[in-house]
Specification:
This protein has 178 residues and is α+β, with helices and mostly antiparallel strands. It folds into two domains: 1-73; 76-172. The protein is built from four helices and four strands. It has a four-stranded antiparallel sheet. 10% of the residues are buried.
Length: 178
């Protein structure tokens, strides 16, 4: 009987150790599941944030694309028909846009009264920006440092090295009160 009792105690101790080991491994498994669940939750949150960021970037790219299309819409540089017209009637040039712009700058320095329609109070007028719309028209902004306005001009190449400019309309913005 002693042998049966000692075998029973040995089995009992083994069973207790097995239960303890199963308990410990179950505890570690539960902790691992908790960590994985927490990690998955963080990953899902990160993934949602990344998706939101991606959607915002996609919207920004679409807006930039639309804006770029709008800016290119009225531009000699992107108007093949106008460039073909200039090449056909006035001779082929590598860069009509730069050529017309440079001739306008030359004209504004040599004959400012032909380009700038208003008397300047604060100093000489200068051209701030030029957009050549097509093979006939351009628009420019002008400033004397305090006043500013815009001028719509017609242009036409004359001969090999000249361009004639005619001022069509102009406006001067009212001064901003400080």
């Amino acid at each position: 009987m002693k042998k049966n009792v000692s075998i029973g105690i040995t089995h009992l101790i083994g069973l207790i150790l097995l239960v303890i080991l199963l308990g410990i491994s179950s505890f570690w498994a539960l902790q691992k599941v908790k960590r994985m669940t927490c990690r998955n939750s963080r990953n899902e949150t990160r993934l949602a944030l990344l998706r939101d960021s991606l959607n915002l970037m996609h919207d920004s790219i679409r807006q930039l694309h639309d804006s770029l299309y709008d800016t290119q819409l009225f531009s000699l540089a992107n108007n093949d028909e106008a460039l073909d017209y200039l090449d056909k009637y006035y001779g082929a040039r590598k860069d009509w846009y730069a050529y017309v712009r440079d001739k306008l700058l030359d004209e504004s320095r040599a004959h400012p009264d032909r380009v700038f329609p208003y008397a300047s109070v604060y100093g000489p007028w200068g051209i701030s920006n030029v957009r050549i719309l097509n093979h006939k028209w351009l628009i420019m902004s002008m400033s004397d440092g305090h006043q500013w306005g815009e001028v719509l001009m017609e242009y036409e190449p004359v001969g090999k090295d000249s361009v004639r400019f005619d001022r069509l309309r102009a406006l001067l913005y009212p001064p901003v009160e400080q």
